[in-house]
Write a structure and sequence with these properties.
The complex is a heterotrimer of chains A (313), B (177) and C (747). Chain B is α+β, with helices and mostly antiparallel strands and 177 residues long. In chain B, 20% of the residues lie in helices and 25% in strands. In chain B, 60% of the residues are buried. Chain C is 27% helix and 15% strand. Classes of the chains: A mainly alpha (313), B alpha+beta (177), C alpha/beta (747). β1 of chain A pairs antiparallel with β2 of chain B.
Chain lengths: 313, 177, 747
C-alpha cells in the first residue's frame, strides 16, 4: 500500500481537498462566449458568401444579441475576480504567453467591432430607424463599404473567442483532465452548434431552418467524435490522465456527463433534428433547449472536473 | 544567481515548525498556509519505509504560473524567486489553476499569495524563516550558481529528487533522499 | 460564602455575560525591555524581549519580537540557550496564537445559579479573592489546612504553591509524576541513587547508539532530544526503536522492532541475558561500580532470546543483533528512559530494567551516555518559615506507594472522595495550568472527586474542560504577558533564563504572582510574600548569583560555569559513592527489597485485547502539547483534529474507509464523547489502534477545538496502579468501533 498524504499545513480554502477556485461564473461566461462566437462566425461567413438576404436571421438578426451576451459574460467574469478593483490591469499589459491575456484583448476588440457590425445592419432590420445625428449616419454608411473586411476580421476574432477558452484550459497541464488539445476545437464546435440551433429556431425561412439544422447535425457529429477521442487520449496517457478519465468512467462525473451532456444534450437533439429534416413533426423548441442546456452543462462539468483532477495528493 | 532550497528527508521529522514560522514571519492569515508536510509510507507492516517532506512553492524556472498570468503580477524576481505583485493581481486565479503543485491560494484581501522564499530576509543575507527555525537543521537554502554554497555541496554529494519533474516546470526545491 | 450547590454541573453554555473589563490597573506597571540592538532586519520590529516558553515543560528560552504598534509579531529561540539552541519547536513558534486567541478567559468568574441552571457570572478580582480566602479559611477551620491541595503544571503554580505552604499544606502535586515520569524516577533512583530529572540527563549528541522503548521523538517534540538526535545521526549514530507503531523515529532507525504491546520487559531481560552471557558488558565498570551482578546473571539465565521471541514476536537473531549493536557502541550508548512511562502497572520495574541495562553497558556518568547535570544554586527571596503541616497526602494511603518521591495527582484525587476508611479527605483544590479531565485517567472518578469538594479554584488561560467544574475561575495571562520565577534548570551547564512581559495582559487577565499575593493578603498571609512587586523579588534573587534584573533583561539567558568539572564523573572510572544503601549502582535493589518489592525485575504477562477489540495506544503530535494547544489558531492550522490509525487488515474486516468518522467504545462500555476520523495506514499493528492525545474537547467556548477529534482520556477507564509508587498505568484499555454515538453523558 502507498499512503501519500498531507499531514500538516496547507488545506487552504478552495484549494484542498479539491481545487474549486472557479465556480459558476466561469462556465457561464464560457457558455455565453461560445454562443456569441458562433453567432458572429455564421453572420460574417454568410455575408462573405453573399447570402445575407437569403439568411436574414443568421446574418442580421442574431448578432443583435451578441453585445448583450458578451456584456453579461464580462460581468460574470468580473464577479469571479477576487481582486476586482484592479481588473483594469488586464488592459495595461499584453502577455503573449498567457491565453488569459489573449482572451481579455479579444473580448475587448470584439465588443466594439460587433456593435459596429450590427450598426451596419440595423436599417435593414428596422426600416424606420433614425440615427438622429448626421455624423453617425455618415459613419455607418462609411462602415458599410468595409463590410467585407469587417467580416473577415470578425471571423478571425470569433474563432479565437470560441477556441481560446478551450486552449486556455488545455494550457494548464497542472490539471490533467484539461490537458488535451481537443478541448479548444470541442468548445468551438459546441459554441457553433448552439448558435446554429438558435438560428434554426428563430428563423422564419424554411431554407434557413433546413440549412442550419443540417449544419448543426454535422457539428454535433464532430462534437461526439471529439469527445470519444478526448477520453481515448486520456486513457492512453500517464497515470494522472487515466485517473482524470476515470472520473467520467465510473467516478463522480459519470452520470451527469453521459446522461445529461451526451445523451440529452447531443444524441437526443441530433436524432430529433434528423427527424425534422425528414419532415416528421417535432416541436421546434425541444432540440434547441436540449442543445443549449447541454452546452451549459458541458462547460460546468469540464470546468469542475478539471479543477478536481490533480497531480499530487 | 539562482536561489534554491533543499530539504533533507532523512532529517525532516515533519514537525511543521517551518509551517508555523512562515505563518508568523510573513503574517499569513490564519486558515492559510504557504507550506505543508507530506508523509509517504510504502510497504506492508512491518516492512515499511517513510519519507517525510516539507513542501512549498517550488519557484520553478519554467513556471506555468508566470506564463499564464495576464498582467505582470506573477513574475520572476532576483535569483529566480517567483513573486506576486499585489497591486497588479486581478484575482483571475489562472496561476492557481496552472500550478501542478497546488502551492498558491487566494489571500483574504483578494490577491494570490504563496511562499516568497522570504525575499525580505534573503535580501538582508538571512535564510528564509522556515530554514532558520528547523530544529533538525533539515533545510538548506542558497545560491546554486555558487559552487561553495551549502546547497551546491549538498546537491553534489547526496542523492536528490524534485517533485513531478515530468510536469516540465524545472522546480527549485529539492529533496535529499 | 461558598455556594449552596451540592453538585457541580459542568457549565458548557456561555453564561459569561458580555465583554471584558479594561486591563492594567494602576497597582502595577509592567516595564518593558528597552529598544535592544535590532537584528539585521531594521523596521521589521521595534523591540525584542526575552522569555521562556510555557507551552510544554521544556521551557526553551526565546525572544519575543514586537512591532512599532506594540503587537507581538513572532517568537524565536535564544541562541545561547542549551534547551533550544536558538530554534524553538512548532508549539513555541506558534506561541503567539495563545496570545491572540479570542477564546481566552477574560475576567474572573464565580459559579452561581440563575433560574435553576448553574452558570458563571463575572466578578471583580477583589470579589474572587474574598471568595477564595473565605473558602480556604472555612476548610481550615472545619478540617484543617492540610485538606487543601494544589494541582499545577505551569510556572505560575510556584506562587500558588508558596501560598498553600504558607497556609499550612504541603499537598502540591503535578500530574507529571504519577501520570507520566514517576516510575522512571523511582526506578533510576533505586538503581543509581539519583533520578533522571527534567530535562533528561541524556548525552544524545555524543552517543553512538540510542535505544528507544516506545519513545517517539519527532512526534514527541521535546526540542532538546529532537535536535540532538539529528546531530547524533548526522555523526553516524544508530537508533534502535522498540515500538508496535512505525513512528517517525522508527523510520529513521537502523533497527525497528515491531514489538507486541505490553511485552517490553521480556525484551529488556533478554537483552541483559545476551549482553551478560556473550560477555559484552563493560567489565571494568560493572566490577567497580555495581552491586548484585551475580544475582542478575542468575536471574536472567533462562531469559533467552528464544524465550523472549515467544512473548514479543521479535526474532531471536534480531534480539542478539541489537544487543550487540548496543554493546558495540558502549559506553556511548543510551537506553533512553522515555518520559511518559505509566503503561501497565509494572512500570517501575520496567524502568529498573532500563537503568540496569545502562549500567551493564557502562553509560551512566559518561560521555554519550548519561551526564551529570548541574543547576545554578539559587536562593529564593527570604520569607518567614512556612508552618509545618501535621499530615500529607501519603497519610491517606498508609503502607502504599512507599517509594513515591513526589506527590501523586491521582492519589490526591482519590483521597478527595470520602471513604469509610479515611477520617478526612481533601476539601479544596486549586488547579493551575492542567486540564485534569484530559489528564487523569478514569474520568468518572475525577468528576466524583470534584463533586466532593467544598471549594474548587481553577487558574487557567483558556476555558478548558476543568474550568467547567470550578467554583471560581481566575483568568491567567499568557507567558508572553508576565513575569515568572527565573528558570533555573539542570543541564550540562547551569543557566539562568528570564521571562518578562512583551505586552500588556489582554482583557482583565493577571499573572499568577499577583493573584497569589492578592489572595495571601486577604488571608492575612501577606507577610509570606514580603516583596512589593515581582521585579523587586527577581532582582534580589539575581543579585545573589552575580547578575541583576537589568542584566537579564538585556541578555535573556546567562550561562554560568559549573562548580566542578564533573560532567562525566565515571568517564575514567574515578571513585564515586552512589546515593544507595550499598554506595554502588544496585543491579540488585536493596531499597526495593527493604520495602517488600521485587529486587530484580520479573516478566509479567499483561491482559490482551478481547476478540473484536484493539489495544488503545496514544501518543503525541509535534505541533501540539497535551490538550492545551488544541484551540491555538496557529497550531490548529497545522492539525485541527486527531485520527484513529487502523491497520488495513482491520479496516477490511470492518469495512472502514479512510476519513470516515466513527466512535470508539472501550472494554467497560464507555464510548468516546465525539467521533473520530479513521486513518487506514500500514504503520500500526493489527492488534492495536493509535491516536494522538489532546483532542475531543467538549467545552463549547473552545471554538476551534470543540468537537474536533476524540479524546483518548474518555476511554482510559481501566487503570493499573504501579505498587511501588502509585503510577497510573493507562495502556491496558481496549477499544472497538461503533457507528453511532453513545448516550449523552451527564456530569
Amino acid at each position: 500500500m502507498i499512503e501519500e498524504i498531507i499531514t500538516s499545513g496547507r488545506m487552504n480554502p478552495e484549494i484542498d481537498p479539491i481545487l474549486h477556485v472557479w465556480g459558476g461564473e466561469i462556465p457561464f461566461y464560457l457558455f455565453l462566449g461560445g454562443i456569441s462566437a458562433g453567432i458572429l462566425i455564421f453572420s460574417a461567413y454568410f455575408t462573405l458568401r453573399g447570402r445575407q438576404e437569403e439568411l436574414p436571421v443568421a446574418v442580421k438578426w442574431m448578432p443583435l444579441a451578441v453585445p448583450f451576451l458578451i456584456g453579461i459574460g464580462l460581468i460574470a467574469l468580473l464577479m469571479d475576480l477576487s481582486h476586482v478593483l484592479y481588473f483594469w490591469q488586464l488592459f495595461t499589459n499584453i502577455r503573449w504567453e498567457s491565453p488569459m491575456s489573449w482572451g481579455a484583448w479579444t473580448l475587448g476588440i470584439i465588443m466594439p467591432l460587433s456593435i459596429a457590425w450590427i450598426a451596419t445592419w440595423v436599417e435593414d432590420i428596422f426600416p424606420k430607424w433614425d440615427w438622429k445625428f448626421d455624423e453617425v449616419k455618415t459613419a455607418i454608411e462609411w462602415l458599410k463599404n468595409y463590410r467585407r473586411y469587417m467580416a473577415q476580421i470578425l471571423i478571425l476574432l470569433s474563432v479565437i473567442l470560441g477556441m481560446y477558452t478551450g486552449i486556455l484550459l488545455s494550457a494548464f497541464n497542472a490539471r490533467p483532465f484539461w490537458n488535451t488539445s481537443i478541448l479548444g476545437p470541442l468548445f468551438l464546435a459546441s459554441g457553433l452548434s448552439a448558435s446554429a440551433a438558435l438560428v434554426s429556431f428563430f428563423s422564419k425561412s424554411e431554407v434557413e431552418k433546413r440549412l442550419f439544422t443540417r449544419i448543426d447535425i454535422i457539428l454535433i457529429g464532430i462534437e461526439l467524435f471529439m469527445i470519444v477521442h478526448l477520453f481515448m487520449g486520456h486513457l492512453a496517457g500517464t497515470q494522472v490522465h487515466i485517473q482524470a478519465a476515470q472520473m467520467f468512467l465510473g467516478g463522480a462525473f459519470t452520470v451527469p456527463f453521459w446522461v445529461f451532456v451526451v445523451g440529452l444534450g447531443l444524441l437526443l437533439p441530433v436524432v430529433l433534428e434528423i427527424l425534422e429534416l425528414k419532415h416528421k413533426f417535432i416541436p421546434a423548441i425541444v432540440p434547441v433547449v436540449l442543445i443549449v442546456a447541454g452546452n451549459l452543462m458541458l462547460r460546468f462539468i469540464v470546468v469542475n472536473a478539471g479543477q478536481a483532477s490533480r497531480w499530487l495528493y | 544567481m539562482r536561489y534554491a532550497m533543499a530539504v533533507d528527508t532523512l532529517k525532516c521529522v515533519g514537525c511543521s515548525d517551518c509551517v508555523v514560522a512562515c505563518q508568523t514571519e510573513n503574517d499569513v492569515p490564519i486558515g492559510h498556509c504557504r507550506d505543508w508536510i507530506v508523509e509517504k509510507t510504502t510497504g506492508t507492516y512491518p516492512e515499511l519505509q517513510l519519507e517525510i517532506r516539507s513542501e512549498r512553492c517550488n519557484h520553478c524556472a519554467n513556471a506555468p504560473c508566470v506564463r499564464t498570468c495576464p498582467t505582470e503580477a506573477s513574475h520572476y524576481a532576483e535569483g529566480g524567486i517567483v513573486l506576486v505583485e499585489e497591486s497588479e493581481c486581478i484575482g483571475c486565479k489562472a496561476c492557481i489553476t496552472s500550478c501542478p503543485y497546488d502551492a498558491r491560494f487566494i489571500h483574504p484581501e483578494g490577491y494570490v499569495d504563496k511562499c516568497t522564499f522570504c525575499i525580505h530576509r534573503v535580501e538582508k543575507g538571512q535564510n528564509p524563516a522556515c530554514v532558520s527555525v528547523c530544529p533538525t537543521h533539515a533545510m538548506i537554502f542558497g545560491d546554486l550558481d555558487d559552487p561553495n554554497s551549502d546547497i551546491s555541496r549538498a546537491m553534489a554529494t547526496r542523492k536528490w529528487k524534485s517533485l513531478i519533474p515530468e510536469a516540465g516546470t524545472d522546480p527549485k526545491v529539492f529533496y535529499l533522499i | 460564602m461558598s455556594t449552596n450547590m451540592n453538585r457541580r454541573d459542568f457549565i458548557k453554555v456561555a453564561g459569561m455575560g458580555a465583554g471584558s473589563l479594561a486591563f492594567a490597573t494602576p497597582l502595577f506597571d509592567f516595564s518593558k525591555g528597552e529598544i535592544l540592538a535590532p537584528d539585521t532586519v531594521p523596521g521589521m520590529y521595534a523591540k525584542r524581549t526575552p522569555t521562556y516558553c510555557e507551552i510544554c515543560f521544556w521551557k526553551c528560552a526565546g525572544w519575543v519580537h514586537t512591532n512599532e504598534e506594540g503587537k507581538i509579531w513572532k517568537v524565536t529561540g535564544h541562541e545561547d540557550d542549551p534547551h533550544s539552541n536558538g530554534r524553538l519547536c512548532p508549539r513555541g513558534t506558534g506561541g503567539v496564537g495563545m496570545y491572540n486567541d479570542e477564546d481566552r478567559l477574560k475576567t474572573p468568574l464565580i459559579r452561581t445559579e440563575v433560574g435553576g441552571v448553574q452558570t458563571f457570572r463575572e466578578a471583580s478580582w477583589d470579589e474572587a479573592f474574598t471568595y477564595i480566602a473565605d473558602g480556604l479559611k472555612k476548610v481550615a477551620k472545619e478540617h484543617g489546612p492540610e485538606c487543601t491541595a494544589l494541582f499545577s503544571h505551569g510556572s505560575g503554580g510556584k506562587y500558588f504553591g508558596d501560598l498553600l505552604k504558607a497556609f499550612g499544606s504541603n499537598n502540591i502535586t503535578a500530574p507529571s509524576y504519577a501520570q507520566c515520569r514517576g516510575p522512571r524516577e523511582v526506578g533510576f533512583f533505586a538503581t543509581y541513587g539519583e533520578g533522571v530529572g527534567s530535562p533528561e540527563r541524556v548525552d544524545i549528541r555524543d552517543t553512538r547508539c540510542l535505544v528507544l522503548i516506545g519513545s517517539h521523538f519527532g512526534e514527541n517534540m521535546h526540542n532538546g532530544p529532537v535536535q540532538e538526535i539529528a546531530q547524533a545521526t548526522a555523526k553516524g549514530a544508530s537508533i534502535i526503536t522498540v515500538d508496535p507503531r512505525f513512528s517517525t523515529v522508527a523510520s529513521k532507525s537502523k533497527f525497528w522492532l515491531p514489538i507486541k504491546p505490553a511485552t517490553d520487559m521480556a525484551l529488556l531481560l533478554a537483552w541483559m541475558h545476551v549482553i551478560i552471557n556473550e560477555g559484552l558488558y563493560d567489565k571494568d565498570y560493572v566490577e567497580k561500580y555495581t552491586y548484585g551482578f551475580d544475582d542478575l546473571k542468575a536471574h536472567v539465565a533462562t531469559m533467552t532470546p528464544e524465550w523472549a521471541y515467544g512473548l514479543t514476536t521479535i526474532k531471536p537473531e534480531t534480539i542478539r543483533e541489537t544487543a550487540r549493536e548496543m554493546a558495540n557502541a558502549s559506553p556511548r550508548v543510551i537506553i533512553h528512559p522515555g518520559r511518559h512511562v505509566t503503561w501497565y502497572g509494572d512500570d517501575t520495574q520496567r524502568l529498573r530494567a532500563v537503568a540496569m541495562l545502562n549500567a551493564l553497558l557502562g553509560s551512566w556518568g559518561r560521555r554519550g551516555g548519561y551526564y551529570n547535570p548541574e543547576k545554578v544554586k539559587f536562593k529564593s527571596y527570604p520569607h518567614p518559615p512556612f508552618p509545618k503541616p501535621t499530615r500529607t497526602w501519603k497519610d491517606a494511603f498508609p503502607g502504599k506507594y512507599k517509594l513515591a518521591g513526589l506527590s501523586l495527582a491521582s492519589g490526591i484525587c482519590d483521597a478527595t472522595i470520602p471513604t469509610v476508611e479515611r477520617d478526612c479527605s481533601f476539601k479544596a483544590w486549586i488547579v493551575n495550568g492542567t486540564n485534569l479531565i484530559h489528564t487523569l485517567p478514569n474520568q468518572a472518578n475525577t468528576i466524583k472527586a470534584i463533586q466532593s469538594l467544598d471549594l474548587m479554584v481553577v487558574v487557567d488561560t483558556m476555558p478548558m474542560e476543568i474550568t467547567g467544574y470550578a467554583d471560581v475561575i481566575l483568568p491567567e495571562c499568557t507567558y508572553l504577558e508576565r513575569y515568572d520565577n527565573i528558570r533555573v534548570s539542570p543541564h550540562r551547564e547551569p543557566t539562568l533564563a528570564l521571562r518578562m512581559p512583551a505586552a500588556e495582559p489582554k482583557h482583565n487577565t493577571k499573572p499568577a504572582w499577583w493573584m497569589a499575593k492578592g489572595i495571601a493578603d486577604k488571608m492575612g498571609l501577606g507577610h509570606f510574600f514580603p516583596w512589593n512587586d515581582i521585579e523587586e523579588k527577581l532582582d534580589w534573587e539575581l543579585k545573589q548569583v552575580g547578575s541583576s534584573l537589568e542584566e537579564m533583561k538585556r541578555l535573556g539567558v546567562k550561562k554560568l560555569d559549573r562548580s566542578y568539572d564533573d560532567l562525566y564523573p565515571m568517564e575514567n572510572l574515578e571513585d564515586f559513592e552512589f546515593n544507595t544503601n550499598t554506595g554502588k549502582i544496585e543491579l540488585y535493589s536493596t531499597a526495593m527489597e527493604d520495602e517488600g518489592y521485587d529486587p530484580l525485575p520479573k516478566y509479567k504477562a499483561h491482559e490482551e485485547p478481547p476478540e473484536g477489540y484493539y489495544r488503545l495506544i496514544y501518543g503525541r503530535a509535534p505541533m501540539h502539547t497535551f490538550s492545551r494547544t488544541a484551540n491555538n489558531p496557529n497550531l490548529t492550522d497545522l492539525m485541527d483534529e486527531n485520527s484513529v490509525w487502523v491497520n488495513p487488515k482491520v479496516a477490511k474486516e470492518w469495512d472502514l474507509k479512510n476519513d470516515q468518522y466513527l466512535w470508539l467504545e472501550n472494554q467497560d462500555g464507555v464510548v468516546s464523547k465525539t467521533p473520530i476520523k479513521v486513518r487506514v495506514t500500514e504503520r500500526i499493528r493489527f492488534d492495536s489502534v493509535y491516536m494522538v492525545h489532546g483532542f475531543g474537547h467538549t467545552n463549547k467556548k473552545l471554538t476551534r477545538a470543540h468537537g474536533r477529534g476524540a479524546s483518548d482520556a474518555d476511554l482510559i477507564t481501566r487503570v493499573h496502579i504501579d505498587p511501588e509508587m502509585g503510577g497510573t498505568g493507562m495502556r491496558g484499555n481496549f477499544v472497538t468501533f461503533r457507528f453511532e454515538a453513545g448516550e449523552e453523558v451527564s456530569s
